[in-house]
Amino acid sequence: MSTHASAQPHVLISGAGPAGLALACALHDRGLRVRVLEQASEASLAAPPDDGREIALTHRSRRLLEQLGLWARIPEVSPLRRATVQSAGSRVPLPFESEGQDLGWLVANRYLRAAAFAGARERGIELLCGQRVSGFTRSDAMAELCTESGERHAAPLVVAADSRFSPLRRLAGIGARHRDFGRSALLVPLSHAQPHEGLAQECFLQGHTLALLPMPGQRCSAVWTVANHALPGIAAMDDAELAATIQQACGSRLGPMQVVGRRHIYPLVAVWAERFVGPRFALIGDAAVGMHPVTAHGYNLGLYGIEALARRLDPNTDPGALAPLLAYEAEHRREAGPIYTGTNALVRFFTDDRAPVLALRRAVIDVARHLPPLRAAITRKLVDAAA
Ligand SMILES: Cc1cc2nc3c(=O)[nH]c(=O)nc-3n(C[C@H](O)[C@H](O)[C@H](O)COP(=O)(O)OP(=O)(O)OC[C@H]3O[C@@H](n4cnc5c(N)ncnc54)[C@H](O)[C@@H]3O)c2cc1C
């Protein structure tokens, strides 16, 4: 076994995803020494492959990314000017817009990842790639990570930012509630004949859900959520059939469509960790809360959690002391809890196709359409989510 030669960090982070790297930047800016261990190669972090995800970001997330100097590194952003929600059988969609400002912005996940990597590199943050974390121990004063290659790294605080299926969360003995929706999201980029004008459409149809998210130019990303048993049928479709099916499902509002990139499939499983902290240990990003993507909150919540944790740590006190960690946990649970529970309830309500529920859904959309204050309240939540 080898131990690492350079100065001992204040904080060790497992996982250089968008959450782990943004946290590393935030902690560095507060004067803490950070070391990040990541299983993937440096090349794949510097230029991440397209994973199909277009991440909707709130105004608050944008401000946090700006403070970290990461927003300016994103090469392409699509403004989200308006959104509509439609349920099977309702003729008129429910509109959301915010007078004089965008609802939010869509950014390809690979750009968020690359921006966070560049930000960490520019700060000189120690990033050890090709290192899969496989062991965790702790004493009163220190926590230690072991990697599969036999390296050992110690710090007063260890943070897991290693995805919703977090191996380190398990190693630390923290359980998590998993909610498997029995569905998967198929993501595919499409070009279309009509301009989208920054409109995001969410259609809750019978048996499936279709979201069309505006991308730069006359393109959108289709997020088609289907029951897992329907996936083989979709996989068998060629691109022309897939585009025609999506075009028909969204009422042809954007005109003829064409597939312009690869398909990506994500099984939908939401995760809520039973605790977000422990002695000399904290969870961040999807490792703490893994969201269903329908309300587009996963990374937004990750950034709010990073802000809440970083604000409580500084190099002049013990970064692994339990009291600030517990304060972070309380704040992040208070903020994420209602969004997590509300999103899961929304998914249940909008994917239950029994006749009375369908009728209720249509009624809810009709009522909301005639209640501008309710729509304005929802829009405010969309625009700035708990700022
Ligand atoms: C289809 C889809 C659409 C989405 N849309 C939105 C949206 O519109 N808005 C939004 O806010 N969010 C959205 N999200 C959520 C968002 O993508 C996630 O919240 C975000 O990517 C989580 O980042 P993370 O860094 O926590 O985890 P990850 O991105 O999963 O990164 C984890 C990192 O840890 C590394 N790792 C794992 N295990 C180990 C180990 N043992 N040792 C070392 N390293 C390890 C991995 O290699 C990886 O680099 C969406 C998600 C999906 C699936």
Hetero groups: flavin-adenine dinucleotide
Strand content bin: 25-35%
Radius of gyration from the CA trace? 22 Å
Q: Which CATH architecture of the largest domain is right?
A: 3-Layer(bba) Sandwich
Top-tier CATH class of the largest domain = Alpha Beta
Instruction: Give me the number of helical elements.
Output: 11
- How far apart the termini lie comes to 46 Å
Coarse morphology? globular
If you average the pLDDT, what whole number results?
90
* Secondary-structure class: alpha/beta
The tally of structural domains comes to 2
Could you tell me the CATH topology label of the largest domain: FAD/NAD(P)-binding domain
Helix content: 25-40%
Main sheet record: 9 strands, mixed
Query: How many beta-strand segments?
Result: 22
